[in-house]
Every structure is written in C-alpha cells, then in structure tokens.
C-alpha cells in the first residue's frame, strides 16, 4: 500500500509539530509548512529517519507565496491525501473599542484567509481524484464567545462556518472534512497573544493540567484511522479541568 501524503501548515511548533512527529511514525509522507525555515529544516532532518519529508517555507497570509510554493512541488508530492490546516494565531486580548487594527488584521489574515488560500491550492487535486481528507484546527472560541475575545472568536467562528461549508461542497466528491476544536492547549499560543509576556502566558494554564500538542495529534491520528465510510466531523476537546471556554477548575 502506498504511503499517504499529508500537508501540515504551522508545522514548526505546537500542534503542527506534534502531528508531524506522530504521522511520521504512522506511514505518512509529509509536506511541512511554516514561516520559520530553520525550524522546518531541523524537523525535516529529525523525521527523515522515519519517512520522506519535504518542506515549504511561506506565510499563509500571502496568497502568491502559497500558490508559488505549492506549484513548485514535484509531481509526486502533489497528490496530497490529507490537508491539515493548523496555522493560526491570537493577538491581544482587548475590548473591541481599544483593540489594535494590526492585531485584527493578523488574526483574520492567518486564521481565515490563510486557511482559504492553502485550501484553494490543495483541494482541487482532491476533487479531481475524488479522494482526500481536510482537517481544520479550530477552537472552542469558534463555538463560544468570551469577554475580549471579539475578533479572535469571530475568526474561529469563520473557521467553523468554512468547515461546514467545505463538508457540504466536497460531499459529492467523497472527501472527508473534520473540525477539531480544542480548549486550553499549552503551546506558543498564549506567548504570541500576549506579545512575548511569558509570565502572563503561563498564568492561563496555572493550576490545571492543560492539553498538549501531542493530545491533539493523537486525535488527528484517530480521525485518520477511521474506516472509509466513517468521518468524525466535529470534535470539541477540553482538558478535564475545563468545562467551557471560561469555566476552568483551578482547584
């Protein structure tokens, strides 16, 4: 049986990196994408001991860069079986009347437009072959609004809507579409949100055992192992200490 090819965006840290490591041991060949080329190169060296790996360094916000990078893939790498839209970000935690326009642009451009740009270049190959699986990494913020989450929540609600729309549009082609929506996952997420303030970032996870990137990677593995006639369409996952977006037991 031929190995399946998985393309992972945001592969240089957190959920993307953990997923790359897990799928490398699961008979997948990998296209790893991210902005930090040095991290991609290091991960390629590590994982090439287990499987074939190629890397693409681009910013998902730049459609021309996305298009050019994917167009330059050698023919054998263009048969992408699994697309994992993992690249995403949160910037700031401000009320709407004092929010930063630059932060708003960054969240909408990466979380929404970046997902669309990569999907637009990958999915037509899946529809042509009438096979494939798209996994969009959403967030509990795409299911529940929380105070000062305004634009970030809006961007993740958009991911939820796009995922549902994809599932409907791609249904005639037999393509699976899955949304995975985590609660508190300890990655670089909060450090980015709080502009490098590691103390404030650490406080988000204080008093609980949060999810790890590896936990979400295991869910992705489970989703991809489902029989052909089964799709896990919409998954919400919390750490045990979390009951809702803003309900966390820190006892």
In a nutshell, what does this entry contain?
By secondary structure, the chain is an alpha/beta fold.
Indicate the CATH class: Alpha Beta
> What spatial form do the alpha-carbon principal axes imply?
globular
**What oligomeric state is this?**
single chain
CATH architectural category: 3-Layer(aba) Sandwich
Measured by DSSP, the beta-strand proportion falls in 15-25%
Tally of structural domains? 1
Mean pLDDT: 96
Remind me, CATH topology?
A: Rossmann fold
SSE layout and pairings?
Layout: E1 4-8, H1 14-24, E2 28-34, H2 37-47, E3 53-57, H3 63-71, E4 82-85, H4 101-129, E5 133-137, H5 150-170, E6 176-182, H6 189-193, H7 198-203, H8 213-224, E7 234-237, E8 242-244, E9 247-248
Parallel strand pairs: 1-2, 1-4, 2-3, 4-5, 5-6, 6-7
Antiparallel strand pairs: 8-9
């Amino acid at each position: 049986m031929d190995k399946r090819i998985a393309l992972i965006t945001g592969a240089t840290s957190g959920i993307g990196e953990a997923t790359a490591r897990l799928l490398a041991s699961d008979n997948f060949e990998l296209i790893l994408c991210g902005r930090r080329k040095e991290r991609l190169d290091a991960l390629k060296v590590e994982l090439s001991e287990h499987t074939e790996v190629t890397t693409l360094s681009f910013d998902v916000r730049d459609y021309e860069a996305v298009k050019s990078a994917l167009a330059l893939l050698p023919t054998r790498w263009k048969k992408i079986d699994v697309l994992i839209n993992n690249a995403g970000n949160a910037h700031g935690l401000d009320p709407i009347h004092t929010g930063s326009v630059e932060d708003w642009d960054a969240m909408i451009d990466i979380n929404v437009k970046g997902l669309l740009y990569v999907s637009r270049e990958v999915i037509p190959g899946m529809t042509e072959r009438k096979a494939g699986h798209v996994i969009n990494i959403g967030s509990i913020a795409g299911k529940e609004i929380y105070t000062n989450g305004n634009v970030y929540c809006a961007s993740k609600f958009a991911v939820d809507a796009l995922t549902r729309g994809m599932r409907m549009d791609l249904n005639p082609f037999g393509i699976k579409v899955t949304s995975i929506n985590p609660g508190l996952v300890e990655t670089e997420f909060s450090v980015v949100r709080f502009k490098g303030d590691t103390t404030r970032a650490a406080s988000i996870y204080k008093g609980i055992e949060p999810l790890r990137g590896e936990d979400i990677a295991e869910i992705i593995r489970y989703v991809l192992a489902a029989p052909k006639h089964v799709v896990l369409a919409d998954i919400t996952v919390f750490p045990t200490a979390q009951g809702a977006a803003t309900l966390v037991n820190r006892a």
